[in-house]
């Protein structure tokens, strides 16, 4: 089934979390559930989202810290009580009685982020949908996961992308034990862009990987 877009969900209430997740799935949205607050930042590093839905039990300053990566991401607070929340046009608050149609209304206001059809990286042209890069008159085809890794690095530049984030994006069902494959992909990407010394893919010890480019 075609997805209408990704929605990030972080709720401490198991009942509320299950109710919203089922609603999203029934309406052809992909629900990404975070089990810990710090997972919000990691999820934002590896995917684009239409909306973040939270039950407002996360302290406001902690949520703001996680949202630094995507400051324009709309946030929908659902709560049985009214904690002290910072007013913001980015945020919508739903008080009891809880109405799932209000979730749908918030989603209807958002547009699904479009994947870039083409972008320039240094002296290279990158075509994500075709899984290839072009340099002058030569073309190199990339395996799907290597292209996904390149897009992750490009989206997060100049920040460092953690190995954990890479594992969860490339192997969402079984992210454990993939570090050796990641290093192979990183080395392959370096070879693909070897004709432009301004494109640098760094391995940051103990942290992850970073793309530096003009």
According to CATH, what is the class of the largest domain?
Answer: Alpha Beta
Provide the number of structural domains.
2
The CATH superfamily of the largest domain appears as: Response regulator
In what range is the share of β-strand residues? Answer: 15-25%
The strand count comes to: 12
Shape: elongated
Question: How is this structure best described in words?
Answer:
This protein has seven helices and twelve strands. The chain is of the alpha/beta class. It has two domains: 6-108, Response regulator (Rossmann fold, 3-Layer(aba) Sandwich), CATH 3.40.50; 119-212, Arc Repressor Mutant, subunit A. Strand 6 and strand 7 (124-127) form a beta hairpin. The chain is elongated.
SSE layout:
Layout: E1 6-10, H1 14-26, E2 30-33, H2 38-46, E3 51-54, H3 60-66, E4 75-78, E5 91-94, H4 100-108, E6 119-121, E7 124-127, E8 132-135, E9 138-141, H5 144-156, E10 161-162, H6 163-170, H7 179-192, E11 200-204, E12 208-212
Parallel strand pairs: 1-2, 1-3, 3-4, 4-5
Antiparallel strand pairs: 6-7, 7-8, 8-9, 10-12, 11-12
Helix pairs in contact: 2-6, 5-7
């Amino acid at each position: 089934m075609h997805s209408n877009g990704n929605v990030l969900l972080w709720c401490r209430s198991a009942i509320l979390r299950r109710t919203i997740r089922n609603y999203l799935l029934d309406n052809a949205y992909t629900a990404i559930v975070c089990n810990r607050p710090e997972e919000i930042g990691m999820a934002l590093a590896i995917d684009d989202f239409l909306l973040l839905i939270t039950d407002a039990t996360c302290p406001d300053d902690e949520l703001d810290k996680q949202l630094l990566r995507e400051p324009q991401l709309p946030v929908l607070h659902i709560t049985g009580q009214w904690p002290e929340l910072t007013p913001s046009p980015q945020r919508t608050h739903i008080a009891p009685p809880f109405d799932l149609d209000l979730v749908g209304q918030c989603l209807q206001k958002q547009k699904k982020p479009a994947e870039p059809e083409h972008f320039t990286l240094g002296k290279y042209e990158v075509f994500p949908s075709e899984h290839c890069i072009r340099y002058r008159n030569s073309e190199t085809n990339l395996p799907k996961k290597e292209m996904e890794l390149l897009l992750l690095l490009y989206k997060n530049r100049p920040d460092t992308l953690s190995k954990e984030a890479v594992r969860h994006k490339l192997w969402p069902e079984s992210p454990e034990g993939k570090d050796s494959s990641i290093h192979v992909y990183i080395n392959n990407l370096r070879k693909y862009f070897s004709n432009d010394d301004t494109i640098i893919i760094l391995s940051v010890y103990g942290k992850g990987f970073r793309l530096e480019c003009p």
